[in-house]
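tl;dr need the bound structure. longer version: we got a ligand (flavin-adenine dinucleotide) that a collaborator sent over and nobodys looked at where it sits. i said id run it. heres the input, straight from their email, havent touched it
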Amino acid sequence: MSSAIIPSSNSDEQPTTRRIRLLSLHLNPPLDHHQQLQLEACSARAKMDVNADKLSTYLRGKHRDIRERIFEYFSSRPDLQTPIEILKDDYRELCLKQLVALVREAGIRPFRYVVEDPAKYFAIIEAVGSVDMSLGIKFGVQYSLWGGSVLNLGTKKHRDKYFEGIDNLEYLGCFAMTELHHGSNVQGIQTIATFDPLTDEFIITTPNDGAIKWWIGNAAVHGKFATVFAKLMLPTHEKNGVSDMGVHAFIVPIRDLKTHKTLPGVEINDCGHKVGLNGVDNGALRFRDVRIPRDNLLNRFGDVSRDGTYTSNLPTINKRFAATLGELVGGRVGLAYSSVGVLKIAATIAIRYSLLRQQFGPPKQPEISILDYQSQQHKLMPMLASTYAFHFATVHLVEKYSQMKKTHDEQLVADVHALSAGLKSYVTSYTAKSLSICREACGGHGYAAVNRFGSLRNDHDIFQTFEGDNTVLLQQVAGDLLKQYQEKFRGGTFAVTWSYLRESMNTYLSQPNPVTARWEGEDHLRDPKFQLDAFRYRTSRLLQSAAVRLRKHTKTLGSFGAWNRCLNHLLTLAESHIETVILENFIEAIKSCPDANSQAALKLVCDLYALNLIWSDIGTYRNVDYVAPNKAKAIHKLADYLSFQVKNIAKELVDAFDLPDNVTRAPIGKQSPSEAYAEYTQYVGF
Ligand SMILES: Cc1cc2nc3c(=O)[nH]c(=O)nc-3n(C[C@H](O)[C@H](O)[C@H](O)COP(=O)(O)OP(=O)(O)OC[C@H]3O[C@@H](n4cnc5c(N)ncnc54)[C@H](O)[C@@H]3O)c2cc1C
């Protein structure tokens, strides 16, 4: 455990002494000042005393109040709580009722925060999604997608006309991008908006069944408007000629504001019962030459004048398309943030139950809690550590997004785009897997619908697909990394998020250090420098080798074929990079924590996060001798030991998520263990 401080070499040193000193160096590095501090933290850990409230205050930051207000409101309205069993149509109506009550009764008016204070907006959306995930998604469709498209793709005239109605829910709306034949490939959509100079209108047309707008939230029952993405067609001088100006967004009224009847030319059908999120009414839309005024083009990035002339500050279709999609990253940020909220709920229920539940034990002695089993710790403690890591990473994402909204800095826009794509895909995939692990970790009682894992899993599952399929998004991250890599070799600089690669690419190009590869003392393994170096090294290696492979295969397969040949490699690269960014943010967040005990607890959790991931990919490190066999063994042992240590403060760590019982809503996850079985028994009718 402890490291001896190795005396430095001096000229009188005997050969044997020197050999012993060098040998010791291989096993334990000399302690620097930072490590000394760390050792002190380790010994303090034995009496770690975590105050959940202080930790929670640090986690929630300044938006704790609005979150509590939302939870308290729903706690005061049990009639608005979603029952365990509910039919699709009833659920949709309840979900609308919940949304209307939140906005009009509880007075949560979130729309202005979309632009003015995104951090507050995301805190609201996370809290609302914790109350009910369908409600969170319906809320997101209204304010992030429909509302967000009006604010971010439109101009002042659109804001003036629609802001109030969107905010107060009179103008319930949809975001109609996906079609039956095209989801991920947005540029492949086929809906057409043709300008008619005679009437000064656009004509919205669904040219074939493949172009029917599909999966559109709020469309089946409640929506009055839709932001419809369509290819803008402008007449040319040739007879009947049109020119395709690329994908643009248009506001299309779909139901009458007073009668709620579907408007002429619009055909709406229900996408039906889904695997989850049945409180949201997803519908399919067909447009039969629906005419809308020219003003309904959301014209921030491209406009059409009265005579049909097209103007834009952006020179190409691709640039306009990128700018349009770039403005929509808010939805993705919200999903990543909310997914962490779901993970917190699941981890809380599973860990509280694992502390309560007792099975087996030493002969003739009381049974022990199932969280005392190493296997249960292995299932749940790295997950708890990841939840904390994701919390800080998504808070960082929200901060960057808010900065971007204020400054519109071009570099920041690119950064937030890649970071939101990476975090959304990494976090939502992790949460989806964890929900199954939590269910299984709670045994049979995990399978009771009242204990939530089924609905959480089903509702959350689609987070992996909408707002960009995870596999597709990770490729954008890999593409961005490769672009930066090429620029580096052309003498350019890395963007801020990737700046760590500047140094680690150089380290990578040299051989792993055979001395540090053997250091295995706890103080070294728990040194953030070692952990970050290891993460960065892996990413740099993957980046360098991906670039080499792509170059090689492009010669024979072309760029598309080469990309596909290296696809799994590229996905691993993107994940490795995102893990590095997550770790960096965790380490930074620990430094800023004002409470010493909370800081020590976070350090422990962060070490588990880092070492568990290094151990999960130990083959990669061993293959290149980045770690020697003994060091690999030491990492494994320490990761298990840290799981055990984290288990000792697991109760406080989940309490710090500050989720009241009316939000977790699972009898087995009750805050007070004595109530858990009692409520569950009552639920069954005893
Ligand atoms: C409940 C729900 C609500 C939705 N709400 C809305 C909404 O309100 N508005 C809206 O416009 N849309 C909405 N959508 C649509 C959603 O955004 C799309 O489903 C999503 O973008 C994925 O597109 P897709 O379904 O075409 O998947 P596909 O792209 O067909 O993906 C299928 C599989 O192919 C793989 N794949 C695709 N392309 C690649 C590639 N290049 N490389 C490797 N693998 C690839 C994917 O990884 C995935 O595994 C919703 C969908 C659902 C289910």
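gonna send this back to them w/ a short note. The chain is about 60% helix and 10% strand.
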